[in-house]
């Protein structure tokens, strides 16, 4: 492991190319507008001053190298359709800018992982990362390529012990499916009633109660909170997840820090009532365990449907709390 005695800046992957990911109009017109990434990074630059470096994933792009990395987790037809033909089921027709933005999001995570493995940072953040619904052979749920599954395999290949934690309000089904036979632990905290409805993660027969759907032989853990469950439900799951993480003692934590469980109007009708205090509690758990186990941390934004205000503020607070604790 690298020398961690000297303070390293927060490593962020962000570039204007992310703004080309347009499922609707600009400026908050679609609930998943990547303007949230731009605002989150601006907040972090302001708050962390000289302790943050922002890298543009669009620079020095090498599409052949990207394809080689994608091939580790995705099928040939899915890669070819998006990268060569600019076609995918997430959009209609051939849209080069969408395909290249989606690829840049993936590349951002690739570069963040290289930085972490190279000892250039201990904490890295890709606000348009953690595209957790993407499957081997198809995109899903606004997610084109599964950067976190790729990252977990890359860390494992480097001899480290990665663990994936996902508190996006939707189950991290793509990551689970891609890692379920690898032995890498995947932990997901989500609303059991929402998309995607993976029966290995959500029990639709038990929606009246908080419940777990663990697959212990696959090292997969799932905590299902309720519609309108607030911080109490979130903290229940976070406390249980902390025990599982403690048992694995990972030296890499991959975090899908979805902000879509936040209370209030969100454009997609998602009914959950987490507050800032809940997200801060969750961030502190990750920071504490990462500190205890001398772990490096990769954070991806995943979902968040209040793009102009709550989503970027939650991401900024979560990232700042984890970074600050680990850079003391
Ligand atoms: Zn989500």
UniProtKB/TrEMBL annotation:
Protein name (database record): Unannotated protein
GO biological process: epigenetic regulation of gene expression
Pfam families named in the record: Hist_deacetyl
GO molecular function: histone deacetylase activity
Annotated source species: freshwater metagenome
Histone deacetylase domain boundaries: 30-320
InterPro entries in UniProt: HDACs (IPR000286), His_deacetylse_dom (IPR023801), His_deacetylse_dom_sf (IPR037138), Ureohydrolase_dom_sf (IPR023696)
């Amino acid at each position: 492991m690298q020398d961690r005695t000297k303070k390293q800046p927060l490593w962020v992957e962000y570039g204007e190319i992310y703004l080309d990911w347009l499922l609707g109009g600009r400026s908050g017109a679609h609930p998943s507008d990547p303007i949230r990434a731009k605002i989150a990074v601006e907040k972090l630059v302001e708050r962390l001053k000289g302790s943050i470096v922002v890298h543009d994933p669009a620079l020095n792009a090498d599409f052949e190298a990207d394809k080689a990395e994608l091939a580790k987790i995705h099928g040939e037809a899915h890669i070819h359709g998006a990268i060569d033909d600019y076609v995918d089921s997430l959009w209609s027709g051939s849209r080069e800018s969408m395909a290249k933005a989606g690829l840049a999001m993936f590349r951002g995570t690739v570069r963040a992982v290289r930085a972490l493995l190279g000892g250039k940072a201990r904490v890295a953040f890709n606000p348009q990362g953690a595209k957790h619904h993407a499957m081997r052979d198809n995109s899903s749920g606004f997610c084109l390529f599964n950067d976190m599954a790729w990252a977990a395999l890359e860390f494992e290949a480097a001899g480290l012990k990665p663990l994936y934690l996902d508190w996006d309000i939707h189950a991290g089904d793509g990551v689970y499916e891609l890692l379920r036979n690898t032995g890498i632990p995947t932990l997901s905290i989500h609303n059991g009633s929402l998309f995607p409805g993976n029966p290995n993660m959500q029990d639709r027969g038990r929606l009246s109660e908080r419940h777990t759907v663990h697959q212990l032989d696959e090292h997969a853990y799932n905590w299902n909170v309720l519609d309108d469950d607030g911080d109490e439900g979130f903290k229940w799951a976070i406390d249980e997840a902390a025990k599982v993480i403690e048992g694995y003692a990972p030296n890499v934590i991959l975090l899908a820090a979805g902000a879509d469980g936040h209370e209030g109007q969100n454009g997609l009708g998602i009914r959950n009532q987490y507050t800032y205090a809940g997200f801060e509690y969750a961030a502190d758990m990750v920071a504490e365990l990462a500190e205890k186990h001398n772990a490096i941390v990769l954070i991806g934004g995943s979902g968040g449907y209040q793009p102009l205000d709550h989503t970027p503020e939650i991401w900024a607070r979560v990232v700042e709390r984890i970074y600050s604790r680990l850079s003391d």
